[in-house]
Design goal:
The structure holds 2 protein chains of 2 kinds. By secondary structure, chain A is an alpha/beta fold. Chain A has 13 helices and 12 strands. The mean pLDDT of chain B is 97. Classes of the chains: A alpha/beta, B alpha/beta.
Amino acid sequence: MISQSNIKLWSSLGMRATFGLIAIELANKNPNLIITTSDVSTSAGLDRFKNKFSEKYIDVGIAEQNLIGVSAGLASEGYDVISTTFAPFQTLRCCEQIKVNLGYMKHKVCMVGLASGLVLGNLGFTHCSIEEVGVLRSIPNITIVSPSDTLELYKVLNEVFNLKGSFYIRLTGGSNSKIINKSDYNFTVGKSVELLSGQDVSIIGCGNILGNCLEAANILKNKNINCSVINMHTIKPIDKDKIVEISKKNKLIVTVEEHNVIGGLGSSVAEVLSSEKHNCILKRIGINDFYSSGGSYEYLKNIYGLSTEKIIETIASNIQNNK
Amino acid sequence: MKLNKIKSFAKNIRKNIIFTAYKAGAKSAHIGGALSCADIMAVLYSDILRFKKKNIIDVNRDRFILSKGHACLALYSALVEKKILKKKDLETFEGDGSNLLGHPIINKISGIEFSTGSLGMGLALGVGIALAAKKKNKSYKTFVVLGDGECNEGSVWESVLCASHFKLDNIIIIVDRNNFQQTGKNSKIMDLKNLKSKFKSFGCESIEINGHNINQIYKSLKKIHKNKPLAIIANTIKGKGIKIFENDNNWHHSIITKAIYKNINKEL
């Protein structure tokens, strides 16, 4: 339930643990719900769920191809299925099962990719996930949502089974995640949210990295650079209208994502801009198509230009170049 | 069980496979692996699978999944024999916009439960359906036909492990063991060795039969397998029923010319 105290609690727990709490609420409301996992109950915050709703919880072991097939089979019998495991295994490991069962046959499954992006950098790039949006975006019939914070995660999970088609929900950030939405707000899948308005630059971001975008925008304001910050939580289908609108207003658009700049949010925005008349340039901040040395979340954000300071630098220098 | 009825069912499946492959002409068709499972399909569709033709999507129907989707001609032909598809539909095989392509496309009202053909995926769907039956207390059974070449796929074994772990005694796995795969003998490409013992060691009730002996197929499908899945290794002959096709892997995917059609049609 949305409340000020929950917003604080959830953000401190982070998206994974919050997902486990939301799952209990969903199961109480939805008798058709089943959660399938690949041996990640603890990592997904699902231990309480597993004990409380043992009949709604199916663990298929470390076998993600089977996870998707079993989930699709259950969905074909009328269940509302959420499958979850760490993002690389939830997506790339079983990519063709996703294509055939969810994309081609349109069995509806909501996939939740845990700890996506760079947050598990200490574990190396086997456990980071910087490719999956690009891969999933090329499969028809899958909506891709990267919630900006735990409140948005709550909102999207409560919407998923009212809407058609499969979903991929990409969880980013760690515990003590940033609060992007301070109180309840209108959330619609496919419709972006303008968090800040400014006439010089538009920053389009998704996921918890929007916290760094907001910090950057606030600091840039003191330097007389006014940024809009747009929460593009739905990467597919992308909010074209909003992108077209800002392309007419601003000379510089900056996308910020914890993903390869090839295939993710930046690419989606570029695809929209490429077929529109406008007078702005697009700068894509994200993983520049290389695997760096591993390390902490902050270390990796810095390497890839995703720290607040680096975002500020990129925007300031591009504003200069543009004048 | 009516032996003669099933035998004539199987014969008609083979006739339709050959007829359709011939009509497909230069588009060519998967023939050998469809003929090898024709007797299995005949037993399943004439005497085992419970479904109502008038309400084919009835929730209590038995589910059938042809995981080796390239053998779709055997499935389409069985559905024609059951008058769920029309014989005329077969002439659209692999045609532009057809519902009957070279691999099955999900079409529940035509008796096709899933789109298959990418190997190693059908059993996982079957496990999901069988789990749903358990949860909903439904008595329907799920039958999945796998190819032996398909058993190269690791995902098959993920699903066997899972079916066994959840004690799914409502799922029946039938392996069409014709000893060939696309480019040659299993033993040369990727040796499967003893499939019966493999399924047994994964926790299935596992039996080996002659996959062209109607009595054996029928009996095996009726075998009791409490608290575990049933795996039937059906030893078959690729191309079975047409002498010149038998054990000749050139007929895995090939074209039946007019001359060949005239010649082999007599055999049927």
